[in-house]
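Design request, tokens follow.
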């Protein structure tokens, strides 16, 4: 996304499709509104042709806009008139003679840059402009809501509509993480039906056409079709003769250096990870020979240019870019989401051998002839190809010559643009395509709503500042306390003790987050006494303040209520990291932290506000429970694997695996908070009964275990923070910490029993059952879902169920059934299941 400074510049100033800098090109009179009716006077000729081009971001220089500007320039050269409908640029300054549609900015987390826009409505200004312009053809280039509305207007006015395919938007969603499993099917369905309504869509290559047909973008039922229209390159502009040895000298390159070029947006879908890994390896293997140049901008630009022997030139003007192409030696372009590969074509025209992904550039790159088309996702193929070209200068030069010849022969820009002009004439002189409008609207409207409203909610939330978020969170917390009040226990006074427990737990998380951030700042100081001072403060926070507040919290609330609140550590970590470490806090982070705080408020509202106390003997007995022992074995296995990965490090494992290993190991060790809860219960029992309990062997081992898991977990985190940022490592640590904390509470303290009992109590309106006779109050199972046994081979079945009545007297029922197997599920004792249970007991009597 590169803002285009277009006013008052020459027409030829077009930049690379995926590269560079705000261009200073302008199309003379892009929009030329003239009087007249569409389609009047028989066949439409080129000199009379009027075309509306609807696109999303005409102000951004990328593959879409570069191609459109070439089309517009060719149309004007042949006497046609053009009207461009587009989203306004971020600064609000309109390009001369364009008309803006209503739009919203795209989130940077979706496209990797912040100045892309998405059209949402055609708008009154655009509709009036089209009414006056009276086009022969409407050309839709982007499947957003504004282009869809423009297509609807054209069909209502009996004007032909066509489309071109420029971006694999649905493939971009594959890089959005877990959410892509939900979002991508909706995006695919929407884009499919968008193009079903256009009749003819022109795709860049035959490979892309086959891929789109396979993915369902051509439908016989709807009658639309996909046809091929390629791309072109200005071979006079991108020319090997523009090689500049003076530029190479200024960059510090010797004549024998081999310079590997990257051109394009430095965002995740373009696979900068491949370039980074390849250049790191080659720099180690050939430190005196290989060099790198990165031309572009994006999230990965800083990381790419931090590699030794790699320099960044940022965005370039239209005059500078061809010189950089020609002055380098190899073009590496590993992107797997390209529809055509304009960068590949520009490299070929500049006389460079091209190393690109076969799935996107095999129609341009012939392996062994003008470059190498690499299969698969691994970087090793790119590295081997670059090494081959580095070591054979003649081969490198011959491949560059071959690529140049093919670019001049097959992809001369004016000839390719003339093909699109002829497509315009063909569409304008044929009857408009009539899609199945009702079916399309029925399908598109709900899909648009499913995509649109969540996006707008996230977008508006991302515009809020820190002060607004603090106010919202305070308001939510006050409303939760006001609406919920407290628990009514035995008709006694309202109990607000759980609020004290929540506040203490929140303070404990703050002290823990402060310690983690200080651990990171520890490595920023080289003076030993400063390191010692920071370590001392960190360990005081994490070993003294954090446990005291945490143990105090357990005295006021149940661990099942407090365990999920540990995730607040992420929020405190983000705030403190931005204040102390000066790490950047993005709007996407702020939205995520709002979700975390909302979840914590919900757990406080819906959680169990009563907790069970344990005696010393009961605590010691819990350590010998079989389920707890199994839990320890599983935890030990996972910890062993994580320790091995962390020990070996990046020598054998990718960086993200090692980062997860550090976070997993530290979080699992520190998350064994059942020890802290047990210690709290033991101290409480000692103070109430006998202080000497603290000196018993079991108590001493419990104290030692609590201190060990805290220190060892934090030590692993500190070691991990030596290599990774707090923003990237602490969330992993805290995630495993929370999971382990909740799991240990469920297994060790058997809190799942309380959950089951509460679900049974929640069904106050259930029909009466036989329990009315024996249990005047609600059914409360003492052994939920553990009483079911496997039937024997004789197919007999028996079980025992235990109830508590209102007087807390136990009654046990035994039942046996011959020649029938009955399967029982969880919560079998819930009142809603009592009817069937009653019938069986009556039958047994």
């Amino acid at each position: 996304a590169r803002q285009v400074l277009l006013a008052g510049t020459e027409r030829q100033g077009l930049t690379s499709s995926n590269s560079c800098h705000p261009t200073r090109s302008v199309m003379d009179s892009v929009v030329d509104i003239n009087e007249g009716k569409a389609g009047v006077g028989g066949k439409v000729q080129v000199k009379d042709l009027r075309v509306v081009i609807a696109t999303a971001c005409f102000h951004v220089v990328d593959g879409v806009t570069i191609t459109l500007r070439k089309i517009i320039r060719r149309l004007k050269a042949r006497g046609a008139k053009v009207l461009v409908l587009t989203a306004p640029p971020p600064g609000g300054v309109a390009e001369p003679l364009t008309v803006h549609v209503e739009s919203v900015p795209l989130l940077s987390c979706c496209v990797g840059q912040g100045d892309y826009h998405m059209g949402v409505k055609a708008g009154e200004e655009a509709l009036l402009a089209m009414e006056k312009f009276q086009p022969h053809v409407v050309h839709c280039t982007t499947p957003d809501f504004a282009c869809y509305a423009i297509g609807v207007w054209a069909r209502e006015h009996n004007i032909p509509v066509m489309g071109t395919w420029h971006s694999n938007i649905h493939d971009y969603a594959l890089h959005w993480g877990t959410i892509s499993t939900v979002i991508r099917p909706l995006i695919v369905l929407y884009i499919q039906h968008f193009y079903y309504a256009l009749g003819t869509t022109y795709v860049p290559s035959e490979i892309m056409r086959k891929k789109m047909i396979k993915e369902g973008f051509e439908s016989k039922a709807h009658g639309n079709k996909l046809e091929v229209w390629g791309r072109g390159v200005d071979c006079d502009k991108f020319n090997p003769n523009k090689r500049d040895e003076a530029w190479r000298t200024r960059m510090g390159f010797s004549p024998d250096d081999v310079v590997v070029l990257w051109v394009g947006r430095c965002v995740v879908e373009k696979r900068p990870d491949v370039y980074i890994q390849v250049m790191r390896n080659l720099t180690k293997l050939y430190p005196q020979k290989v060099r790198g140049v990165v031309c572009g901008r994006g999230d990965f630009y800083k990381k790419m240019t931090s590699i030794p022997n790699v320099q960044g030139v940022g965005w370039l003007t239209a005059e500078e870019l061809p010189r950089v192409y020609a002055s380098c030696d190899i073009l590496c372009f590993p992107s797997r989401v390209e529809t055509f590969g304009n960068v590949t074509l520009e490299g070929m025209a500049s006389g460079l051998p091209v190393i690109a992904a076969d799935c996107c550039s095999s129609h341009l790159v012939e392996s062994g002839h003008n470059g190498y088309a690499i299969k698969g996702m691994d970087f090793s193929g790119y590295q081997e190809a670059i090494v081959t070209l580095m070591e054979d200068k003649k081969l490198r030069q011959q491949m560059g010559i071959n690529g140049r010849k093919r670019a001049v022969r097959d992809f001369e820009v004016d000839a390719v643009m003339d093909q699109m002009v002829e497509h315009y004439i063909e569409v304008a002189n044929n009857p408009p395509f009539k899609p199945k409008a009702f079916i399309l609207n029925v399908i598109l409207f709900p899909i648009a709503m499913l995509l649109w409203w969540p996006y707008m909610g996230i977008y508006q939330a991302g515009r809020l500042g820190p002060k607004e978020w603090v106010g919202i969170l305070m308001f939510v917390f006050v409303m939760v306390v006001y609406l919920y009040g407290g628990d009514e226990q035995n008709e006694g006074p309202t109990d607000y003790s759980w609020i004290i427990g929540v506040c203490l737990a929140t303070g404990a998380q703050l002290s823990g987050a402060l310690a983690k951030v200080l651990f990171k700042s520890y490595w920023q100081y080289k003076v030993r006494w400063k390191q010692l001072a920071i370590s001392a403060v960190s360990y005081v926070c994490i070993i003294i303040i954090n446990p005291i507040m945490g143990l105090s919290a357990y005295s006021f609330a149940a661990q099942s209520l407090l365990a999920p609140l540990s995730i607040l550590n992420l929020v405190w970590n983000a705030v403190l990291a931005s204040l102390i470490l000066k790490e950047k806090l993005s709007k996407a982070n702020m939205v995520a932290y709002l979700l975390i705080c909302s979840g914590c408020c919900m757990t406080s509202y819906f959680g169990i506000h009563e907790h069970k106390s344990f005696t010393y003997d009961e605590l010691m007995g819990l350590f010998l429970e079989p389920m707890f022992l199994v839990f320890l074995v599983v935890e030990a296995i996972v910890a062993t694997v994580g320790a091995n990965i962390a020990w070996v490090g990046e020598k054998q494992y990718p960086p993200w695996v090692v980062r997860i290993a550090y976070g997993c190991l530290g979080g699992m060790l520190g998350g064994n908070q059942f020890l802290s809860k047990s210690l709290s219960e033991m101290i409480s029992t000692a103070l109430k009964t006998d202080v000497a309990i603290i000196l018993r062997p079991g108590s001493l081992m419990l104290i030692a275990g609590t201190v060990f898991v805290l220190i060892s977990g934090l030590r692993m985190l500190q070691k991990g923070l030596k290599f990774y940022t707090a923003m990237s490592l602490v969330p992993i640590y805290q995630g495993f910490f929370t999971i382990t904390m909740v799991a240990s509470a469920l297994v060790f303290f058997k809190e799942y029993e309380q959950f089951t009992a509460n679900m049974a109590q929640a069904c106050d309106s259930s029909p009466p059952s036989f329990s009315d006779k024996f249990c005047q109050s609600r059914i409360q199972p003492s052994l939920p879902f553990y009483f079911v046994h496997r039937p024997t081979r004789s197919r007999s079945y028996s079980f025992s169920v235990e109830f508590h009545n209102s007087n807390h007297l136990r009654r046990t029922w035994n039942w046996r059934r011959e020649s029938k197997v009955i399967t029982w599920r969880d919560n079998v004792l819930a009142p809603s299941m009592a009817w069937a249970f009653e019938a069986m007991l009556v039958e047994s009597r």
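Comment from the thread starter after seeing the answer: thanks! Residues 1-41, 484-494, 762-845 have pLDDT under 50 and may be disordered.
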